[in-house]
Structures
1.
Amino acid sequence: MRGFFDPQTPRGANRPIYLDYNATTPMAPEVVSAMMPWLSENFGNPSSDHLFGRDARQQVETAREEVAALIGAEPDEIVFTGSATEANNLAILGIAKAMKSERKEGLLVTSAIEHPSVLGPFGCLGEKGWRRQILPVDSSGRVDLGSAERIIGPETVFVSLMQANNETGAIQPVRAIADLAHARGAWVHVDASQATGKVPVDRKALGADLLTLAGHKFYAPKGIGVLVIRRGTPLRRIMAGGGQERNLRPGTENVPAIAALGTASRLAREHLGRERVRMEELRDRLHGRLAKGIPGLLLNGPPADRLPNTLNLSFPKVKGRDLLAAVPHIAASTGSACHGGNQEISSVLRAMGLDPERAWGAVRLSLGRFTTLPEVDRASNDLIAAWKRLVS
């Protein structure tokens, strides 16, 4: 069970084990190769009319087609941004700006487990007088459909929901909520940052009017994101400047990162099925070995309907950060990367209703294309040994 991409460095007993793929992924070798020419000899500005500019512009459009093919969209629906955070801000603040211009300042709805790049713009709009409602989640971390039916009403103008949670891997009932929102006349934004490359992401199947992608979550570089905008969706720019990206995202396009994202999108489309099965097998093996060696180990999140690479586990009688400190060669997380510096209980686990002891004991282990079976076995052995030392 080898990863699809073989790292170029040797494996051995002393090699660090990377189990934090939900925080970020390494760039795939093919992606690096696709990016390099645009960092050197192919340096043109896509807005220029000469040969160098035309070459760069063609590369941007080729990548746009690759991204569109990955998520079931049309190329002219793809807008490149500097990150998923920027894409989420453009979606939320841009739709609000459009609604305000049409004098349709109704209710904005999101969930309790969204990324800060969604909750933050919602907070900003609340400070400007917009009404907001937060959808609760159940104990498995999935949005409660009954609550959604009560909260999303005729006054709702916009709903934002993630496809899969970055901490627990819980896959959300996006289509059901999108159908409910559309029946009430609302626009729907789906943050697919964590789902892309792990499970199928299809704008039409999800019922999304707006869809966010993050390049660095599926083996492209950091600093490149996407907002997919269904034709006919009202959206206003939130930055002033040039007319790039359908006059919605001013600034010279990051051609090297866009070229890399196009290649990463093609690879994700070609190998999703195989990688999904492989990830599930490795994830379940890791979980099984840890559960056998650690009595009282608890899974946070649904046993099914979750990302194939993600395990969020609560280790009894210890704090997650203490456990990870005892295995410094294992890279994992006690929360999402954006919360990593804060010593407080994860807001996602808190929204799920976990008691403090269980939440403090949580560790997220997320696998990826470079993860191998020997690494999984060594990680489980080392985590079990470290836990036993801490509780003895």
2.
Amino acid sequence: MKAIILCAGKGTRLRPLTFTIAKHLIPIANKPVIYYSLEKIKSIGIDQVGLIVNNENINDFKNFLGDGEKFGLSIEYILQNEPKGLAHAVSIARDFIGNDDFLMYLGDNLILDDISKFVNEFRKEEELKASILLSPVKDPSRFGVAVVKGEKIVKVVEKPKDPISNLAIIGMYLFRSTIFEGIDNIKPSWRGELEITDAIGYLIEKGYNVKGHVVYGWWKDTGKPEDLIEANRKILDDNHFKLENKGIVDTLSDIQGRVYIGENSEIINSTIRGPVVIGANCVIKDSYIGPYTSIGDNVLVENCELENSILMDHVKLLNLPYPIDSSLIGKNVQIVNNERKPKAMKFVIGDMGKVEIVR
């Protein structure tokens, strides 16, 4: 069995961050989102991965992932230069997949459930042509949904206005090579895309056995800033990081709860209340870092309070008069309070930036 991970999306809902980094490479608990996908795939015994990327982000992925050797995987990069839909993404991976069974995983989705049962059942039940991971949701209109009788899927619909089921398709699929028959026999939807739900619907109409596997654990489509903040909170809450201090903590500082401090980082006269992850070469001085905060490498925080936030690499926060909460701050950002007069706010903000001032 092989795997394909779909990473060609532009991440428009995460701009301006995604002008300079692929959304799948944004860190959660100081690990890029895509790392969690690769670890999940490795855990079920798959070692050949096709990464569907676009011509704008392919070099970023190659720089982060290389050939996959550091993950115990072999990664092949497959270009999807136009956003023509999930089924189109599968079709361009046909040479990579060949006649093998394969797992398809949407690369910006985090799924914490153990998927070994989902995969093992598919491996054993040879009559199955597809198996789809499902989960009940409150608002099915935001997702592709499936109607299930017993374990058999009898109908799938992409983002229905009037939902026919509350079982959402959550971004993980298992297919035999039969799915290519379905893709070859569908036409673009009203969105101009080849929908994977239409290809699955073709298999159902032809009488092929398509199964739904329902999970009830936490999962998240990390497509918006608030989704990343929630995912960061969940990962930190669930002990998905080591408790270790590789830095220097002075005697005036107070470390509470589960905290990771990276190499050469200094904590000076500060309180760190976990769960918190702090990267390498950081300086935290005269500050309070509250729960559910992830701080990247080479970050300076001085005379500030923050919690429930993600700070990427090379951020500088100085002398801020109000706490930072529930924030996502990209690389090389500086937020500085300057006491010079006359008092004024001074910004250099790129396209689609967002500043919210709460007083």
3.
Amino acid sequence: MNDYPPEFLQAINQFNCGEYYACHDTLEALWMEAMEPERTLYQGLLQIAVAGYHLGNDNQRGAVLLLGEGLSRLRRCPELPADWDFRELIQQGQALLTTLQAQRPVGFNLKLLTL
């Protein structure tokens, strides 16, 4: 985790506090400057944050699209930070995606990690 810029930790905190749009902005700035493998990681997390934003605004279709894209990117990441349990995030995200695709009401309750 020490290899990541402070803005990355800020984005995690924003995500965990439900500040999905702010998280998007923070991650987007990092993503635009990043090289692989961080670029794919940032984009995947950014898309999951936007899914949370869409769900909070009752845009279930947008949430489904962005959550699916974000999870797909995380699965393709060649290297994920070892300090995190990304398998858990991906499993929880997939369960949420399945619920959303079935058009059942659900809250967005994913957490990236505890700081």
